[in-house]
Amino acid sequence: MAPRFTANGKRIGRPPKNPQTAQAASPVSAEDAAIGRAFRQFMNRYDGAGRGRRMASWNAPSTGPNQSINAALQVLRDRSSDSARNDWSSESIIQKWTTTLVGIAITPRFHRIKSKERRQEINDLWTDFVRQADADGVLDAYGMQTLAVRSWIERGEMFGRRRYRKASDGLAVPMQVQLLEADMVPNFDTDTYTGLPVNNKIRSGIEFDNRGKKIAYWVYKTHPGDGVWSGAGGTPDATALVRVPAEDMFHMFEPKRIGARRGVPTLAPILAKQRNILDYEDATLERQKIANLFVAFISRSLPSLDPTDPNHQALTGLESEIDGEAAPLLPMKPGLMQELEDGQTVEFAKPPDAGTSYSDYMRTSHLGTTAGTGVPYELAVGDIANVSDRTLRVVINEYRRFASQRQWQIVIPQMCQRAVEWFADAALLAGKVSIEEREAIVRAEHAPHGWEYIHPVQDVEGKALEVKNGFRSRSSVIGEQGDDPDVVDQERADDAERERALGLPVSGVADATSSTAAPDPAANTNRDDVAQAELERIKRVEAQTDALREAARATAARDRAQARQDELHQSVLALLRDPESV
Protein backbone atom coordinates (compact mmCIF):
# COMPACT_ATOMS: atom_id res chain seq x y z
CA MET A 1 0.00 0.00 0.00
CA ALA A 2 1.35 3.40 -0.94
CA PRO A 3 2.05 5.66 2.03
CA ARG A 4 -0.10 8.71 2.71
CA PHE A 5 1.19 12.20 3.50
CA THR A 6 -0.15 15.31 5.22
CA ALA A 7 -0.21 18.78 3.69
CA ASN A 8 3.25 19.39 5.20
CA GLY A 9 4.67 16.21 3.65
CA LYS A 10 4.63 14.12 6.83
CA ARG A 11 3.82 10.46 6.55
CA ILE A 12 0.51 9.25 7.99
CA GLY A 13 0.46 5.97 9.89
CA ARG A 14 1.60 4.17 13.03
CA PRO A 15 5.29 3.64 13.82
CA PRO A 16 6.74 0.10 13.66
CA LYS A 17 5.68 -2.16 16.53
CA ASN A 18 9.30 -3.15 17.24
CA PRO A 19 11.35 0.00 16.82
CA GLN A 20 14.41 -1.77 18.26
CA THR A 21 14.58 -4.14 15.35
CA ALA A 22 13.23 -1.80 12.74
CA GLN A 23 15.57 -1.03 9.92
CA ALA A 24 16.70 2.50 9.26
CA ALA A 25 14.23 4.51 7.25
CA SER A 26 15.15 4.67 3.63
CA PRO A 27 15.03 7.97 1.74
CA VAL A 28 11.67 9.01 0.34
CA SER A 29 11.27 7.71 -3.14
CA ALA A 30 10.68 10.03 -6.06
CA GLU A 31 7.17 8.67 -6.39
CA ASP A 32 6.34 9.42 -2.74
CA ALA A 33 7.80 12.92 -3.01
CA ALA A 34 5.72 13.59 -6.11
CA ILE A 35 2.60 12.40 -4.32
CA GLY A 36 3.35 14.73 -1.38
CA ARG A 37 3.91 17.72 -3.66
CA ALA A 38 0.73 17.03 -5.57
CA PHE A 39 -1.25 16.78 -2.34
CA ARG A 40 0.12 20.06 -1.02
CA GLN A 41 -0.63 21.80 -4.30
CA PHE A 42 -4.16 20.42 -4.21
CA MET A 43 -4.75 21.70 -0.67
CA ASN A 44 -3.22 25.16 -1.21
CA ARG A 45 -5.21 26.38 -4.16
CA TYR A 46 -5.39 29.90 -2.65
CA ASP A 47 -2.14 31.81 -2.34
CA GLY A 48 -3.57 33.54 0.71
CA ALA A 49 -3.84 30.18 2.48
CA GLY A 50 -0.24 29.23 1.83
CA ARG A 51 2.22 28.67 4.66
CA GLY A 52 5.44 29.38 2.87
CA ARG A 53 8.02 31.97 3.78
CA ARG A 54 5.84 34.85 2.62
CA MET A 55 2.89 33.81 4.77
CA ALA A 56 4.71 32.25 7.73
CA SER A 57 4.34 35.38 9.89
CA TRP A 58 0.64 35.83 9.14
CA ASN A 59 -1.13 34.38 12.16
CA ALA A 60 -4.87 34.83 11.66
CA PRO A 61 -6.83 33.65 14.71
CA SER A 62 -10.05 31.75 14.13
CA THR A 63 -12.39 33.68 16.43
CA GLY A 64 -16.11 34.27 16.47
CA PRO A 65 -17.81 37.58 15.66
CA ASN A 66 -17.93 38.64 19.31
CA GLN A 67 -14.71 37.15 20.67
CA SER A 68 -12.73 39.09 18.08
CA ILE A 69 -14.27 42.34 19.39
CA ASN A 70 -14.43 41.87 23.15
CA ALA A 71 -10.74 42.12 24.01
CA ALA A 72 -10.03 45.18 21.86
CA LEU A 73 -13.32 47.08 21.95
CA GLN A 74 -12.57 49.52 24.77
CA VAL A 75 -9.10 50.33 23.44
CA LEU A 76 -10.51 50.93 19.96
CA ARG A 77 -13.14 53.30 21.34
CA ASP A 78 -10.66 55.28 23.40
CA ARG A 79 -8.14 55.59 20.58
CA SER A 80 -10.83 56.51 18.09
CA SER A 81 -12.09 59.33 20.32
CA ASP A 82 -8.54 60.50 21.00
CA SER A 83 -7.82 60.54 17.28
CA ALA A 84 -10.99 62.55 16.66
CA ARG A 85 -9.94 65.07 19.32
CA ASN A 86 -6.36 65.53 18.12
CA ASP A 87 -6.16 64.56 14.44
CA TRP A 88 -7.71 66.84 11.86
CA SER A 89 -8.17 64.06 9.29
CA SER A 90 -10.05 61.83 11.75
CA GLU A 91 -12.30 64.71 12.75
CA SER A 92 -12.94 65.48 9.09
CA ILE A 93 -13.94 61.88 8.35
CA ILE A 94 -16.34 61.76 11.30
CA GLN A 95 -17.79 65.15 10.42
CA LYS A 96 -18.33 64.21 6.77
CA TRP A 97 -20.12 60.99 7.69
CA THR A 98 -22.32 62.77 10.23
CA THR A 99 -23.26 65.56 7.85
CA THR A 100 -23.91 63.19 4.96
CA LEU A 101 -26.08 60.74 6.90
CA VAL A 102 -28.23 63.31 8.72
CA GLY A 103 -27.90 66.65 6.97
CA ILE A 104 -30.48 68.91 8.59
CA ALA A 105 -32.77 66.09 9.68
CA ILE A 106 -34.41 62.80 8.77
CA THR A 107 -38.10 63.60 9.08
CA PRO A 108 -41.17 61.30 9.21
CA ARG A 109 -44.22 61.77 7.01
CA PHE A 110 -47.58 60.55 8.23
CA HIS A 111 -49.22 60.02 4.83
CA ARG A 112 -51.38 57.14 6.06
CA ILE A 113 -53.48 59.64 8.01
CA LYS A 114 -56.14 60.26 5.36
CA SER A 115 -57.77 63.34 6.86
CA LYS A 116 -55.74 66.44 6.01
CA GLU A 117 -56.92 68.25 9.13
CA ARG A 118 -56.04 65.32 11.37
CA ARG A 119 -52.71 64.83 9.63
CA GLN A 120 -51.85 68.47 10.26
CA GLU A 121 -52.74 68.09 13.94
CA ILE A 122 -50.46 65.06 14.27
CA ASN A 123 -47.69 66.92 12.42
CA ASP A 124 -48.05 69.76 14.91
CA LEU A 125 -47.92 67.26 17.78
CA TRP A 126 -44.73 65.79 16.34
CA THR A 127 -43.23 69.27 15.96
CA ASP A 128 -43.93 69.96 19.63
CA PHE A 129 -42.34 66.63 20.57
CA VAL A 130 -39.25 67.45 18.49
CA ARG A 131 -38.62 70.54 20.61
CA GLN A 132 -39.04 68.62 23.88
CA ALA A 133 -37.55 65.22 22.97
CA ASP A 134 -34.15 65.52 24.66
CA ALA A 135 -34.19 64.14 28.21
CA ASP A 136 -31.03 66.14 28.90
CA GLY A 137 -32.68 69.35 27.70
CA VAL A 138 -29.87 70.33 25.33
CA LEU A 139 -30.95 69.57 21.74
CA ASP A 140 -34.13 68.99 19.81
CA ALA A 141 -34.89 65.63 18.20
CA TYR A 142 -33.08 66.48 14.98
CA GLY A 143 -30.01 67.72 16.81
CA MET A 144 -30.08 64.44 18.72
CA GLN A 145 -29.95 62.62 15.38
CA THR A 146 -26.70 64.39 14.55
CA LEU A 147 -25.18 63.67 17.96
CA ALA A 148 -26.28 60.03 17.85
CA VAL A 149 -24.80 59.42 14.40
CA ARG A 150 -21.55 61.11 15.38
CA SER A 151 -21.29 58.93 18.48
CA TRP A 152 -21.93 55.81 16.39
CA ILE A 153 -19.27 56.73 13.82
CA GLU A 154 -16.71 57.77 16.44
CA ARG A 155 -17.19 55.01 19.02
CA GLY A 156 -18.76 52.24 16.97
CA GLU A 157 -22.22 52.25 18.54
CA MET A 158 -24.63 54.20 20.72
CA PHE A 159 -27.83 53.63 22.66
CA GLY A 160 -31.06 55.49 23.21
CA ARG A 161 -33.36 55.04 26.21
CA ARG A 162 -37.05 55.83 26.44
CA ARG A 163 -37.83 57.96 29.48
CA TYR A 164 -41.46 58.08 30.63
CA ARG A 165 -42.67 61.39 32.06
CA LYS A 166 -45.62 62.49 34.15
CA ALA A 167 -48.61 64.25 32.67
CA SER A 168 -47.87 67.14 35.03
CA ASP A 169 -44.54 67.79 33.27
CA GLY A 170 -46.39 69.71 30.58
CA LEU A 171 -44.91 67.88 27.60
CA ALA A 172 -46.62 67.35 24.26
CA VAL A 173 -46.43 63.60 24.90
CA PRO A 174 -45.32 62.08 28.24
CA MET A 175 -42.04 60.70 26.92
CA GLN A 176 -38.48 61.82 26.21
CA VAL A 177 -35.39 60.15 24.74
CA GLN A 178 -32.02 59.92 26.47
CA LEU A 179 -28.92 59.30 24.36
CA LEU A 180 -26.27 57.00 25.86
CA GLU A 181 -22.67 56.47 24.80
CA ALA A 182 -21.43 52.97 24.06
CA ASP A 183 -19.59 52.87 27.40
CA MET A 184 -22.89 53.06 29.27
CA VAL A 185 -23.59 49.39 28.45
CA PRO A 186 -20.60 47.39 29.77
CA ASN A 187 -19.24 44.62 27.59
CA PHE A 188 -19.31 41.57 29.89
CA ASP A 189 -20.64 37.98 29.87
CA THR A 190 -22.19 36.10 32.78
CA ASP A 191 -24.84 33.47 33.48
CA THR A 192 -25.45 34.48 37.10
CA TYR A 193 -25.95 38.05 38.21
CA THR A 194 -27.93 39.93 40.80
CA GLY A 195 -31.38 40.61 39.35
CA LEU A 196 -30.89 38.27 36.37
CA PRO A 197 -33.96 36.04 35.81
CA VAL A 198 -33.52 32.28 35.82
CA ASN A 199 -32.46 30.73 32.49
CA ASN A 200 -31.46 34.13 31.13
CA LYS A 201 -27.87 35.08 30.38
CA ILE A 202 -25.91 38.27 29.77
CA ARG A 203 -23.74 38.49 26.67
CA SER A 204 -21.85 41.67 25.83
CA GLY A 205 -23.94 43.53 28.39
CA ILE A 206 -27.21 42.46 26.73
CA GLU A 207 -29.62 40.05 28.40
CA PHE A 208 -31.00 37.16 26.34
CA ASP A 209 -33.53 34.48 27.17
CA ASN A 210 -33.01 30.79 26.45
CA ARG A 211 -34.29 31.30 22.88
CA GLY A 212 -31.76 34.03 22.11
CA LYS A 213 -34.24 36.92 22.21
CA LYS A 214 -33.06 40.27 23.55
CA ILE A 215 -34.79 40.90 26.85
CA ALA A 216 -32.95 43.82 28.47
CA TYR A 217 -29.82 45.97 28.50
CA TRP A 218 -27.70 46.43 31.62
CA VAL A 219 -26.86 50.11 31.79
CA TYR A 220 -24.64 52.16 34.08
CA LYS A 221 -26.42 54.73 36.18
CA THR A 222 -23.70 57.25 35.32
CA HIS A 223 -20.93 57.25 32.75
CA PRO A 224 -18.07 55.02 33.99
CA GLY A 225 -15.51 57.40 32.54
CA ASP A 226 -16.62 60.24 34.79
CA GLY A 227 -15.03 58.61 37.83
CA VAL A 228 -18.23 57.80 39.71
CA TRP A 229 -18.14 54.02 39.40
CA SER A 230 -15.71 52.36 41.81
CA GLY A 231 -15.48 48.94 40.15
CA ALA A 232 -12.13 47.62 38.97
CA GLY A 233 -12.67 45.77 35.68
CA GLY A 234 -14.22 42.37 35.05
CA THR A 235 -17.89 42.00 35.91
CA PRO A 236 -19.30 45.38 37.02
CA ASP A 237 -20.73 45.86 40.47
CA ALA A 238 -24.47 45.15 40.37
CA THR A 239 -25.19 48.33 42.32
CA ALA A 240 -23.71 50.40 39.48
CA LEU A 241 -26.06 48.97 36.83
CA VAL A 242 -29.76 49.18 36.11
CA ARG A 243 -31.74 46.69 34.04
CA VAL A 244 -33.61 48.41 31.19
CA PRO A 245 -36.15 46.41 29.14
CA ALA A 246 -35.21 46.00 25.50
CA GLU A 247 -38.41 47.72 24.32
CA ASP A 248 -37.22 50.88 26.09
CA MET A 249 -33.83 50.92 24.35
CA PHE A 250 -32.56 51.28 20.81
CA HIS A 251 -29.08 50.22 19.78
CA MET A 252 -27.50 51.78 16.69
CA PHE A 253 -24.43 50.03 15.31
CA GLU A 254 -23.20 48.42 12.10
CA PRO A 255 -22.57 44.67 12.51
CA LYS A 256 -19.48 43.62 10.60
CA ARG A 257 -20.12 39.89 10.95
CA ILE A 258 -23.20 37.72 11.32
CA GLY A 259 -24.06 37.39 15.00
CA ALA A 260 -22.09 40.42 16.16
CA ARG A 261 -23.64 42.03 19.24
CA ARG A 262 -21.54 45.20 19.46
CA GLY A 263 -20.07 47.63 16.95
CA VAL A 264 -16.53 48.87 16.33
CA PRO A 265 -15.54 52.47 15.45
CA THR A 266 -15.40 53.49 11.81
CA LEU A 267 -11.78 54.54 12.33
CA ALA A 268 -10.74 51.08 13.58
CA PRO A 269 -9.09 49.91 10.32
CA ILE A 270 -6.98 53.06 10.00
CA LEU A 271 -6.00 53.97 13.57
CA ALA A 272 -2.50 52.50 13.26
CA LYS A 273 -2.00 54.20 9.90
CA GLN A 274 -3.24 57.52 11.27
CA ARG A 275 -0.73 57.28 14.10
CA ASN A 276 2.11 56.65 11.66
CA ILE A 277 1.06 59.67 9.62
CA LEU A 278 1.10 61.88 12.72
CA ASP A 279 4.54 60.59 13.68
CA TYR A 280 5.83 61.28 10.18
CA GLU A 281 4.32 64.77 10.23
CA ASP A 282 5.94 65.56 13.59
CA ALA A 283 9.30 64.19 12.43
CA THR A 284 9.14 66.27 9.25
CA LEU A 285 8.33 69.39 11.26
CA GLU A 286 11.29 68.84 13.58
CA ARG A 287 13.57 68.21 10.63
CA GLN A 288 12.35 71.43 9.02
CA LYS A 289 13.10 73.36 12.21
CA ILE A 290 16.62 71.95 12.25
CA ALA A 291 17.06 72.71 8.54
CA ASN A 292 16.18 76.35 9.18
CA LEU A 293 19.16 76.75 11.50
CA PHE A 294 21.81 78.88 9.79
CA VAL A 295 25.22 78.80 11.47
CA ALA A 296 28.66 79.79 10.15
CA PHE A 297 31.99 78.86 11.72
CA ILE A 298 35.11 81.04 11.30
CA SER A 299 38.44 79.26 11.33
CA ARG A 300 41.91 80.83 11.37
CA SER A 301 45.31 79.57 10.49
CA LEU A 302 46.86 82.59 12.20
CA PRO A 303 47.90 82.58 15.87
CA SER A 304 44.94 83.14 18.16
CA LEU A 305 44.36 86.63 19.45
CA ASP A 306 43.08 88.01 22.68
CA PRO A 307 39.24 88.16 22.53
CA THR A 308 39.44 91.77 23.67
CA ASP A 309 41.73 92.65 20.77
CA PRO A 310 39.86 94.75 18.15
CA ASN A 311 41.40 92.60 15.42
CA HIS A 312 39.33 89.70 16.69
CA GLN A 313 36.32 91.32 14.99
CA ALA A 314 38.15 92.01 11.75
CA LEU A 315 36.01 89.56 9.81
CA THR A 316 32.79 91.56 10.07
CA GLY A 317 33.82 94.83 11.61
CA LEU A 318 30.84 94.57 13.96
CA GLU A 319 30.57 94.18 17.69
CA SER A 320 30.71 90.59 18.91
CA GLU A 321 29.41 88.75 21.93
CA ILE A 322 31.53 86.63 24.23
CA ASP A 323 29.54 83.52 25.15
CA GLY A 324 31.52 82.82 28.31
CA GLU A 325 34.42 81.47 26.26
CA ALA A 326 37.33 82.84 24.28
CA ALA A 327 35.48 82.41 20.94
CA PRO A 328 33.21 85.39 20.17
CA LEU A 329 29.77 85.25 18.49
CA LEU A 330 29.69 87.43 15.38
CA PRO A 331 26.39 88.73 13.97
CA MET A 332 25.50 88.77 10.27
CA LYS A 333 23.63 91.38 8.26
CA PRO A 334 21.69 91.01 4.99
CA GLY A 335 23.65 92.01 1.90
CA LEU A 336 26.97 92.16 3.76
CA MET A 337 30.07 91.48 1.61
CA GLN A 338 33.13 90.82 3.73
CA GLU A 339 36.68 90.38 2.51
CA LEU A 340 38.54 87.77 4.54
CA GLU A 341 42.08 88.20 5.74
CA ASP A 342 44.81 85.77 4.97
CA GLY A 343 44.40 82.50 6.81
CA GLN A 344 40.67 82.98 7.53
CA THR A 345 37.94 80.66 6.19
CA VAL A 346 34.19 80.32 6.79
CA GLU A 347 32.32 77.03 7.00
CA PHE A 348 28.53 76.78 7.15
CA ALA A 349 26.67 74.11 9.05
CA LYS A 350 24.91 71.50 6.93
CA PRO A 351 21.65 70.63 8.72
CA PRO A 352 19.52 67.81 7.31
CA ASP A 353 17.35 68.74 4.38
CA ALA A 354 13.60 68.80 4.98
CA GLY A 355 13.03 66.57 1.99
CA THR A 356 10.69 66.89 -0.98
CA SER A 357 8.51 63.78 -0.52
CA TYR A 358 6.30 65.19 2.23
CA SER A 359 3.31 66.13 0.08
CA ASP A 360 3.42 62.89 -1.92
CA TYR A 361 3.61 60.78 1.21
CA MET A 362 0.79 62.64 2.94
CA ARG A 363 -1.46 62.44 -0.10
CA THR A 364 -0.80 58.75 -0.67
CA SER A 365 -1.32 57.96 3.01
CA HIS A 366 -4.60 59.87 3.23
CA LEU A 367 -5.82 58.19 0.07
CA GLY A 368 -5.60 54.94 2.01
CA THR A 369 -7.08 56.20 5.27
CA THR A 370 -10.07 57.83 3.60
CA ALA A 371 -10.70 54.72 1.52
CA GLY A 372 -10.65 52.66 4.71
CA THR A 373 -13.53 54.71 6.13
CA GLY A 374 -15.59 55.06 2.96
CA VAL A 375 -15.18 58.83 2.59
CA PRO A 376 -13.75 60.11 -0.72
CA TYR A 377 -10.29 61.63 -0.37
CA GLU A 378 -11.39 64.79 -2.16
CA LEU A 379 -14.15 65.44 0.38
CA ALA A 380 -12.23 64.49 3.52
CA VAL A 381 -9.09 66.47 2.67
CA GLY A 382 -10.52 69.12 0.35
CA ASP A 383 -7.92 68.44 -2.35
CA ILE A 384 -9.62 68.72 -5.75
CA ALA A 385 -6.72 70.33 -7.60
CA ASN A 386 -6.22 67.52 -10.12
CA VAL A 387 -9.81 66.25 -10.32
CA SER A 388 -12.16 67.04 -13.18
CA ASP A 389 -15.80 67.85 -12.57
CA ARG A 390 -16.93 64.59 -14.17
CA THR A 391 -14.59 62.50 -12.04
CA LEU A 392 -15.72 64.33 -8.94
CA ARG A 393 -19.35 63.65 -9.84
CA VAL A 394 -18.65 59.91 -10.16
CA VAL A 395 -16.86 59.89 -6.79
CA ILE A 396 -19.63 61.81 -5.02
CA ASN A 397 -22.39 59.67 -6.53
CA GLU A 398 -20.70 56.47 -5.37
CA TYR A 399 -20.23 57.94 -1.90
CA ARG A 400 -23.90 58.89 -1.81
CA ARG A 401 -24.89 55.30 -2.66
CA PHE A 402 -22.91 54.09 0.35
CA ALA A 403 -24.42 56.82 2.52
CA SER A 404 -27.95 55.93 1.38
CA GLN A 405 -27.27 52.32 2.26
CA ARG A 406 -26.30 53.31 5.79
CA GLN A 407 -29.27 55.64 6.10
CA TRP A 408 -31.89 53.08 5.13
CA GLN A 409 -30.29 50.01 6.73
CA ILE A 410 -28.94 51.44 10.00
CA VAL A 411 -29.95 54.98 10.95
CA ILE A 412 -33.63 54.87 9.97
CA PRO A 413 -34.62 51.37 11.18
CA GLN A 414 -32.47 51.35 14.33
CA MET A 415 -33.06 54.91 15.55
CA CYS A 416 -35.60 56.98 13.60
CA GLN A 417 -38.28 54.31 13.42
CA ARG A 418 -37.94 53.49 17.12
CA ALA A 419 -38.37 57.16 18.00
CA VAL A 420 -41.56 57.34 15.90
CA GLU A 421 -42.92 54.20 17.58
CA TRP A 422 -42.20 55.60 21.04
CA PHE A 423 -43.88 58.87 20.05
CA ALA A 424 -46.97 57.01 18.82
CA ASP A 425 -47.18 54.94 22.02
CA ALA A 426 -46.87 58.03 24.22
CA ALA A 427 -49.47 59.91 22.17
CA LEU A 428 -51.84 56.95 22.46
CA LEU A 429 -51.36 56.73 26.24
CA ALA A 430 -52.00 60.47 26.50
CA GLY A 431 -55.25 60.09 24.57
CA LYS A 432 -54.13 62.33 21.72
CA VAL A 433 -54.39 59.69 18.98
CA SER A 434 -56.58 56.65 18.46
CA ILE A 435 -55.42 53.07 18.06
CA GLU A 436 -55.99 53.28 14.29
CA GLU A 437 -54.02 56.52 14.11
CA ARG A 438 -51.25 54.97 16.18
CA GLU A 439 -50.95 52.16 13.62
CA ALA A 440 -50.83 54.72 10.82
CA ILE A 441 -48.16 56.78 12.61
CA VAL A 442 -45.77 53.85 13.11
CA ARG A 443 -45.97 53.23 9.35
CA ALA A 444 -44.57 56.68 8.65
CA GLU A 445 -42.36 57.32 5.64
CA HIS A 446 -38.92 58.66 6.55
CA ALA A 447 -37.39 61.37 4.38
CA PRO A 448 -33.64 61.96 4.64
CA HIS A 449 -32.34 65.42 3.87
CA GLY A 450 -31.83 65.77 0.12
CA TRP A 451 -28.47 65.94 -1.61
CA GLU A 452 -27.30 69.25 -2.99
CA TYR A 453 -27.07 69.52 -6.77
CA ILE A 454 -23.60 68.99 -8.19
CA HIS A 455 -24.49 70.76 -11.46
CA PRO A 456 -27.80 72.54 -10.75
CA VAL A 457 -28.81 73.28 -14.34
CA GLN A 458 -28.11 69.82 -15.71
CA ASP A 459 -29.47 68.04 -12.63
CA VAL A 460 -32.76 69.96 -12.64
CA GLU A 461 -33.19 69.59 -16.39
CA GLY A 462 -32.53 65.87 -16.15
CA LYS A 463 -35.14 65.37 -13.43
CA ALA A 464 -37.64 67.52 -15.32
CA LEU A 465 -37.18 65.31 -18.37
CA GLU A 466 -37.69 62.19 -16.26
CA VAL A 467 -40.99 63.54 -14.95
CA LYS A 468 -42.05 64.81 -18.36
CA ASN A 469 -41.42 61.45 -20.03
CA GLY A 470 -43.08 59.46 -17.27
CA PHE A 471 -39.94 57.79 -15.91
CA ARG A 472 -40.73 58.96 -12.38
CA SER A 473 -43.28 61.00 -10.47
CA ARG A 474 -42.97 64.60 -9.39
CA SER A 475 -43.60 63.50 -5.80
CA SER A 476 -40.54 61.26 -5.90
CA VAL A 477 -38.38 64.15 -7.12
CA ILE A 478 -39.67 66.37 -4.31
CA GLY A 479 -39.24 63.62 -1.74
CA GLU A 480 -35.70 62.95 -2.92
CA GLN A 481 -34.83 66.49 -1.86
CA GLY A 482 -36.20 65.83 1.62
CA ASP A 483 -39.38 67.86 1.12
CA ASP A 484 -43.00 66.80 1.58
CA PRO A 485 -44.93 66.80 -1.73
CA ASP A 486 -48.16 67.78 0.03
CA VAL A 487 -46.47 70.75 1.67
CA VAL A 488 -44.82 71.81 -1.58
CA ASP A 489 -48.12 71.64 -3.49
CA GLN A 490 -49.90 73.65 -0.79
CA GLU A 491 -47.14 76.26 -0.83
CA ARG A 492 -47.37 76.51 -4.62
CA ALA A 493 -51.13 76.95 -4.43
CA ASP A 494 -50.76 79.64 -1.75
CA ASP A 495 -48.14 81.44 -3.83
CA ALA A 496 -50.33 81.35 -6.93
CA GLU A 497 -53.34 82.68 -5.03
CA ARG A 498 -51.30 85.51 -3.53
CA GLU A 499 -49.80 86.43 -6.90
CA ARG A 500 -53.23 86.54 -8.53
CA ALA A 501 -54.57 88.72 -5.71
CA LEU A 502 -51.69 91.15 -6.19
CA GLY A 503 -51.95 91.14 -9.97
CA LEU A 504 -48.56 89.51 -10.39
CA PRO A 505 -47.68 87.02 -13.13
CA VAL A 506 -48.36 83.52 -11.86
CA SER A 507 -45.20 81.41 -12.16
CA GLY A 508 -44.90 77.64 -11.99
CA VAL A 509 -48.69 77.02 -11.98
CA ALA A 510 -50.68 75.87 -14.98
CA ASP A 511 -53.47 78.12 -16.20
CA ALA A 512 -56.91 77.20 -14.88
CA THR A 513 -58.40 76.85 -18.35
CA SER A 514 -55.68 74.50 -19.51
CA SER A 515 -56.48 71.94 -16.81
CA THR A 516 -59.82 71.08 -18.40
CA ALA A 517 -58.76 71.43 -22.01
CA ALA A 518 -58.35 68.33 -24.14
CA PRO A 519 -54.78 67.15 -24.54
CA ASP A 520 -53.04 68.31 -27.67
CA PRO A 521 -52.29 65.30 -29.90
CA ALA A 522 -49.44 67.19 -31.54
CA ALA A 523 -47.82 67.77 -28.15
CA ASN A 524 -48.02 64.07 -27.38
CA THR A 525 -46.65 63.21 -30.81
CA ASN A 526 -43.70 65.58 -30.46
CA ARG A 527 -42.86 64.64 -26.86
CA ASP A 528 -40.06 62.30 -27.93
CA ASP A 529 -38.74 64.88 -30.37
CA VAL A 530 -38.60 67.53 -27.65
CA ALA A 531 -36.84 65.18 -25.26
CA GLN A 532 -34.37 64.15 -27.95
CA ALA A 533 -33.67 67.77 -28.81
CA GLU A 534 -33.05 68.55 -25.15
CA LEU A 535 -30.62 65.67 -24.85
CA GLU A 536 -28.81 66.81 -28.00
CA ARG A 537 -28.52 70.31 -26.55
CA ILE A 538 -26.97 68.92 -23.36
CA LYS A 539 -24.52 66.88 -25.45
CA ARG A 540 -23.54 69.98 -27.43
CA VAL A 541 -22.89 71.91 -24.22
CA GLU A 542 -20.74 69.09 -22.88
CA ALA A 543 -18.85 68.87 -26.19
CA GLN A 544 -18.18 72.62 -26.13
CA THR A 545 -16.93 72.33 -22.55
CA ASP A 546 -14.58 69.51 -23.53
CA ALA A 547 -13.32 71.52 -26.50
CA LEU A 548 -12.60 74.55 -24.31
CA ARG A 549 -10.79 72.33 -21.81
CA GLU A 550 -8.64 70.79 -24.57
CA ALA A 551 -7.89 74.24 -25.98
CA ALA A 552 -6.75 75.40 -22.54
CA ARG A 553 -4.46 72.38 -22.24
CA ALA A 554 -3.00 73.03 -25.71
CA THR A 555 -2.39 76.69 -24.86
CA ALA A 556 -0.61 75.73 -21.65
CA ALA A 557 1.55 73.24 -23.57
CA ARG A 558 2.49 75.90 -26.13
CA ASP A 559 3.37 78.34 -23.37
CA ARG A 560 5.64 75.76 -21.73
CA ALA A 561 7.31 75.00 -25.07
CA GLN A 562 7.83 78.71 -25.76
CA ALA A 563 9.34 79.22 -22.29
CA ARG A 564 11.71 76.32 -22.89
CA GLN A 565 12.69 77.74 -26.27
CA ASP A 566 13.38 81.16 -24.73
CA GLU A 567 15.51 79.52 -22.05
CA LEU A 568 17.58 77.68 -24.66
CA HIS A 569 17.93 80.90 -26.66
CA GLN A 570 19.28 82.74 -23.64
CA SER A 571 21.72 79.90 -22.97
CA VAL A 572 23.03 80.09 -26.53
CA LEU A 573 23.48 83.87 -26.28
CA ALA A 574 25.37 83.47 -23.01
CA LEU A 575 27.62 80.85 -24.61
CA LEU A 576 28.38 83.16 -27.54
CA ARG A 577 29.23 86.04 -25.24
CA ASP A 578 31.48 84.05 -22.90
CA PRO A 579 32.35 80.53 -24.11
CA GLU A 580 34.32 79.80 -20.94
CA SER A 581 31.31 80.42 -18.69
CA VAL A 582 29.68 77.14 -19.68
Find the count of extended strands (DSSP E, 2+ residues). 15
Portion of residues within helices: 40-55%
Distance between the termini: 85 Å
Instruction: Please mark out the parts with pLDDT under 50 across 5 or more consecutive residues, or reply none.
Output: 228-232, 510-518
Outline the biggest β-sheet. Answer: 4 strands, antiparallel
- Using only C-alpha atoms, the radius of gyration works out to 37 Å
Class by SSE composition: alpha+beta
Overall geometric form: extended
Counting DSSP H or I runs of 4 or more residues, the number of helices is: 16
Mean pLDDT: 83
Major β-sheet strand ordering: 6-7-8-9
- Proportion of strand residues: 5-15%
Biased composition (Low complexity): 510-523
InterPro entries: Phage_lambda_portal
Region (Disordered): 1-29, 475-494, 503-527
GO biological process, one term: virion assembly
Q: Can you tell me about this structure?
A:
- The structure is a single chain.
- This protein is an alpha+beta fold.
- Among the domains are: 1-16 and 29-44, no CATH class; 107-262, no CATH class; 526-581.
- It is built from 16 helices and 15 strands.
- It has helices at residues 30-43, 67-70, 73-86, 88-102, 116-132, 141-155, 271-291, 358-373, 377-381, 389-429, 435-442, 456-468, 474-480, 485-502, 521-525, 527-577; strands spanning 4-5, 11-12, 107-109, 157-164, 175-181, 201-203, 206-208, 214-220, 241-245, 249-253, 296-300, 321-322, 328-329, 344-348, 445-447.
- It starts with a strand and ends in a 5-residue tail after the last helix.
- Residues 228-232 and 510-518 have low confidence and may be disordered.
